[in-house]
Write a structure and sequence with these properties.
- InterPro entries: DinB/YfiT-like, Maleyloyr_isom, MDMPI_metal-binding.
- This is Maleylpyruvate isomerase family mycothiol-dependent enzyme.
- Keywords: Isomerase, Pyruvate.
- GO terms for molecular function: isomerase activity; metal ion binding.
- The protein is of the alpha/beta class.
- It has a single domain, classed as Four Helix Bundle (Hemerythrin (Met), subunit A).
- Helix content is 52%, strand content 8%.
- The strands form two sheets. The protein has a four-stranded mixed beta sheet with strand order 1-5-4-6. A two-stranded antiparallel ribbon has the order 2-3.
- The chain is globular and about 55 Å long.
- 39% of the residues are buried.
Length: 259
Amino acid sequence: MSVDMTRWAQEIPGISRDTDAREVALGAYERLLEALEQLEPEEWRAPTECPGWDVAAMVGHLIGAAKAGASVRETLRQQRWARRHAEAFDSNRLDAANELQVRDHAHLTPDERIAELRRLAPAAVRGRMRLPRVLRRIELPLDPGGSNAAGMPATVSLGHLMDVIYTRDVWLHRVDIARATGRSVDLDSSTERRVVEDVVAEWAERHAQSFHLTLHGPAGGVFRHGEGGPELAFDPVEFCRVLSGRASGEGLLATRVLF
């Protein structure tokens, strides 16, 4: 007798501070650090799919983001710099802040980058989880302060940013680094499964259309929303890359989610 393992997207619990945001965030950092420790010296110079960033620069960005998560003072410093220099980045303050994060850590060796990120990760997650509930409801516009790619949501709440988006950023940059260095992405952990299923649930909620989705592999599963709809099949990593805007997508896949 076969067992139907299909999951309804609307029944997937969201990642949040009230559920498992802390555990998933720490898990994403740990999996990233494990991957970085395996890199050879020359692989740190490999170009990534993020324009202008090699692996070292991408990790510099992640260190800067962790510092901001750990410290309100550091967040404000980066935001002030981004506002002053946004014009050089097509008025995108997020791109400006990212550039500052890369510059701030350009002097670090690969070993120093790993050590700094390992030191900062727990404090970054604690800082994000401490955001007061009243502030977590604030909605931030994403254009020009964040991604303005077609299909992206127009706003994001501070709570969702802290609980989910920064964790997705860490997770997907691990994918970026693996692709840049020709390495595989190990998806066989609860962290991977939670990130992927949370992406599925948010994507389904955003477009609100029926679908039947099969994601192959250890971080995948079979998901549906509504009755009928298109039959879709993907590798979990490629599915997330499409929804992030890193790869093209049509139909329901033109609806993106933030990473």
